[in-house]
Design goal:
Belongs to the thiolase-like superfamily. Thiolase family. Pfam families: Thiolase_C, Thiolase_N. Keywords: Acyltransferase, Transferase. Helix 1 crosses helix 2. Strands 1, 2, 3, 4, 5, 6, 7, 8, 9 and 10 form a 10-stranded mixed sheet that branches. The chain is globular and about 60 Å long. The chain is built from 12 helices and 10 strands. By secondary structure, it is α/β, with parallel strands linked by helices.
Length: about 375
């Protein structure tokens, strides 16, 4: 069996202490799930499972937020939910698990997505008071006892690929410009539920303002301007197999052509999208030139710039509506947000193939290739 994308919606991404700050994460996800179900006009009782990505599942994000969000939406109690944590790739992995389930025939119709309210649950809340590697003898024997730091990793990538601060600033500024252009031309209107626009893009940012910022670590080159913004948001997609399409008279919008995840050096941490992309292209038989649109998560400017150098992808096809540097990175929701945006962008431009990838904690990356129908 094959897996199809039937519906895809998201909230506007809110900046920290912004539009979603007071909204309980379960309610944030519940609202977008209801919009998805109502938009597709499918009986919610037919959904087999709800799979949501979420990172830092403590406090209001604890207790299996996928289940809580579905019930908070007032939807049928017999539908279960499960929450996934593959760090930044959590909701992309939720889509993968959903696709694998419907492809196997063990389920026919699944809601997949993600949610994160980083205002209410600050980043790394689940890692206090002790991080995931501290105290592990096996980890220390293999990788040493130094702190694993994403900011160090971003700087290390910039150094290894000889990426200059000037290049990173230009990339970051372009991300804002592309996001603002997308907002002003209403490109996101079909994918965003509600009247609000994304809150994070900065219309007044300049290279000069970026140059005034100090590096995030002593001796480093990466600044906050070259990094993804902490943010709040949710996104959801409806994943179906052919049986569900026929049973519920659903119209597929895209086919999931490929899904995989690969690992790389966990200390360098953020490089896995490079081998993961190569692996996906080998498995599909596609070339980098066959892909019409790429969504490569902008955790840091250096991550995408290194990926571009290694893959040879056309920059004009990458993050054409801006990325997380401008639009924000609500950790558990970003994978689904990227998928929603990529699907709508393929429909807008008439492209056939879209490839999404993102770096993840532990030195991992997911890759999804979709084919517009």
């Amino acid at each position: 069996m094959e897996a199809y994308l039937v519906g895809a919606v998201r909230t506007p991404v809110g900046r920290r202490n912004g539009m979603h700050a007071a909204t309980h994460p379960a309610d944030l996800a519940a609202g977008i799930i209801k919009s998805l179900i109502n938009g597709v006009r499918v009986d919610p009782a037919a959904v087999d499972d709800v799979i949501l990505g979420c990172v830092d599942t403590v406090g209001p994000q604890s207790g299996d937020i996928a289940r809580t969000a579905w019930l908070a939406a007032g939807l049928p109690e017999h539908v279960p939910g499960v929450t996934v944590d593959r760090q930044c790739g959590s909701s992309q992995q939720a889509v993968h698990f959903a696709a694998q389930a419907v492809m196997s025939g063990t389920a026919d119709l699944i809601v997949a997505g993600g949610v994160q309210n980083m205002t209410q649950v600050p980043i790394s809340s689940a890692m206090a008071p002790q991080g995931p590697y501290q105290g592990s003898r096996g980890w220390a024997k293999r990788y040493g006892s130094d702190l694993v730091d994403q900011f160090h990793s971003a700087d290390a990538i910039a150094a290894q690929w000889s990426i200059t601060p000037e290049e990173m600033r230009r990339f970051a500024l372009e991300s804002h410009h592309k996001a603002i252009a997308a907002i002003d031309s209403n490109r996101f209107k079909t994918e965003i539920q509600g009247a609000e626009d994304d809150e994070c893009p900065r219309r007044d940012t300049t290279i000069e303002r970026m140059m005034a910022l100090r590096p995030l670590r002593d001796g480093g080159t990466t600044t906050a301007a070259m990094s993804s913004q902490t943010a709040d948001g949710a996104a959801a997609l409806l994943i179906a197999n052919g049986k569900a399409l026929r049973t519920h008279d659903l119209t597929p919008r895209a086919r999931i052509r490929h899904l995989s995840a690969r690992g790389d050096d966990p200390i360098l941490m953020l490089t896995a999208p490079i081998p993961a992309t190569a692996h996906a292209l080998r498995r599909t038989g596609l070339s980098i030139g066959d892909i019409d649109r790429f969504e490569v998560n902008e955790a840091f400017a250096s991550v995408v710039l290194a990926w571009l150098r290694e893959t040879g992808a056309d920059p004009a096809r990458v993050n054409v509506n801006g990325g997380a540097i401008a639009l924000g990175h609500p950790l558990g929701a970003t994978g689904a947000r990227l998928m929603v945006t990529m699907l709508h962008e393929l429909e807008r431009c008439g492209g056939r193939y879209g490839l999404q990838t993102m770096c993840e904690g532990g030195g991992q990356a997911n890759v999804t290739v979709i084919e517009r129908l």
